[in-house]
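Listing S7. Sequence submitted for prediction.
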Amino acid sequence: MKRLIYTICSAICVAAVVSAVSGAEKAQPVKGPIGLQLYSLRDYFNDDVPQTLDRVRDMGFRIVELAGTYGNTPEKFREMLKERGLRPLAGHFSFDRLRDDPEGVAQEAKALGLRYAGCAWIPHDGAFDLEECKEAIKVFNNAGEVMAENRIRFFYHNHGYEFQPYKDGTLLDLMMRETNPKYVFYEMDLFWTVHPGKDPVALLEKYGRRWELMHLKDLKKGVKGDLSGSSDVRNDVALGTGQMDFPVIIMAARKAGVRFYFIEDESPSVLEQVPQSLEYLEQFKW
């Protein structure tokens, strides 16, 4: 009997230790309007969707931005997120789908429970040019109107190549001027703003409330980018360790009216870097 009691007590103690360790691995809920772009963990999602969503929850995130559902229906993926207390706020969809079937995108966004649906890449050959920009403007204005009819806000996420010079500015300036501000909003990706040599603060001040969303990303020190919209993923570094002046940028973003911020980390060290980035962001009052 004593041996049985000892065995039971030992098992309880071990379970308590395991539980304590597991609890210690879970971060406190992330404060403020900060989420995670799930594309950051794309390689892990391809292996195990439920376990990867558990990771996102355990990091402390409560809002997320989507880039696909990894083989699940929108309804199923939304339910998986809900089970973990994760709110899908925004999602990225392909340019082709937005051009050819914006209503279908709107219905999928509604099924996922999104407030925002947007585009992060405009297909183009070689350097992004004026004709490709004009086509994108047409597609975005139409998609924006369709989304608005479904109570969803449409956005475009800059990717660096749209800073090609045009007249007295860039093709992004043309896009800003010719997309309807009632229906088309923007998500500033800091990496893809600084990489091509642009100043995010100046753009936030220039276009104000057109910027509703922001990707918080940092660019490795010493890296000089270009207008290709492409870079080694290892140039994504933990926030506060690269080239970005985050105190100044975040202040400007607040003044501009940015509403939600998403950490996106495409590096192979994402599991180590995202917690570091969250720790860095604790210094700011959200």
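Caption to Listing S7: primary sequence and predicted structure tokens for the chain studied. Residues 2-25 form the longest helix (24 residues). DSSP finds twelve helices and twelve strands in the chain.
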